Amino acid sequence: MAFRDVLEIEVIGGNGGDGSMSFHRAKYMEKGGPDGGHGGKGGSVYLRAVEGVESLERLLGRRKFKAGTGNGGEGRLRNGADAEDIIIDVPVGTTAFDAETGKVVADLIRPGQLKVVGRGGAGGRGNSVFASSTRQAPRFSEIGVRGQKRKLRLELRLIADVGLVGYPNAGKSSLLAALSNANPMIAAYPFTTLSPILGVVSDDTGDERFTLADIPGIIEGASEGRGLGLEFLRHISRTRVLIYVLDVAVDPVRELESLQGELRSYDPSLLESVSLIALNKVDTVDEDVAVMVEDELVRFGLPVLRISAAERTGLDELRRALFELLPARELWAQTHALEEESDAVVVPPLELELREEADKDGQIERIWVVAGGGFEEKIARFARHLEDAAEYLSGVFKRQGLYNALRRVGARQGDSVDIGGMRFEYFDEDDDTRR
């Protein structure tokens, strides 16, 4: 399977089922009371992090995920069934961004982690719930809420314990093969590795282990998108320890300065990661040259280990050092999780705008256009029975402060109020001219 670490999908939560407008009918009972049941909840779309999947490639055949609609309510107080949810399995390390806003919707860094990304709509209430002492036969019910719809950009950032960072042909693939059970392609030319490769490294007893990732070679300008730089750097951000793999014979001091510069440009926090330097290919130079280079690298403040992946020298010391340096996985996960978008439904603030239009007789009509405050959504839920629900809605708007807000901005008796394209006449109950 080809490696795929970026993918765009569309998720659509299911609509809530409509509430029922029904009245009890029985023999010898000509006029029964309201008995409309509630609609079921629409299905939601979830992302779930799973192990054993290392690419987004498996999702390529399907780009749209739509959950089902809740069943409508029925008479005799029978509620509609909720629709089933959809769960999309993605690799551990997947981050989902809202394609429009760029906000993080889900950051899945632990196996089994579940996050709703397309919320299902609530079911509408049946007319039975709207009965009262003054409204004994409500001839209206609610429409179910529409499900959440949006496009997501999925980015896979490999969850590896240790990441190998270095320029092309620094010997990272050879080091991965020597330390772990991985079998990467190895050749003496740059960019042999075009996708991250994972291996597992065990300690001397075989009881402890960690995953090691060969991140494809970085080039200068990678943080600005040159080559495949951004794709490579994305995976480095998820490793608990970084190994800078430097070729002892190719100006390693300059290479390290350049590598750290690219990491700093992409994400300065990467330089705070636990790190060490693997000075590779020491078998190709005299020992005094290797010692001199090691002394020059000490000023970077990182442990330096001289190794030869090809000759398998210094690897036991490197393996032991990595086990000692690895921070606790749970603590690391807590400090490296991205801030996710809140699950709370945000109601936009109330906005009132006065417009003046001439009617067919040339008279100027004052119209207050209402936006935000949740009032448009409330109107939409009674669109099928708006005339019958007008009295109920008027009471809701009053209790939720709309009339007071209109009065404060100068609304007058007889002005029109426009909410979601529906027009109402404004009445001020405190207006003395009505008495």
TrEMBL record:
Name under which the protein is recorded: GTPase Obg
Q: What family does the database annotate?
A: Belongs to the TRAFAC class OBG-HflX-like GTPase superfamily. OBG GTPase family.
Gene name of this polypeptide:
obgE
Q: Which residues bind Mg(2+)?
A: S173, T193
Please state every residue range assigned to the domain named Obg: 1-159
Pfam families associated with the record: DUF1967, GTP1_OBG, MMR_HSR1
Q: How does it assemble?
A: Monomer.
Q: Which organism is it from?
A: Deinococcus rubellus
Q: What does this protein do?
A: An essential GTPase which binds GTP, GDP and possibly (p)ppGpp with moderate affinity, with high nucleotide exchange rates and a fairly low GTP hydrolysis rate. Plays a role in control of the cell cycle, stress response, ribosome biogenesis and in those bacteria that undergo differentiation, in morphogenesis control.
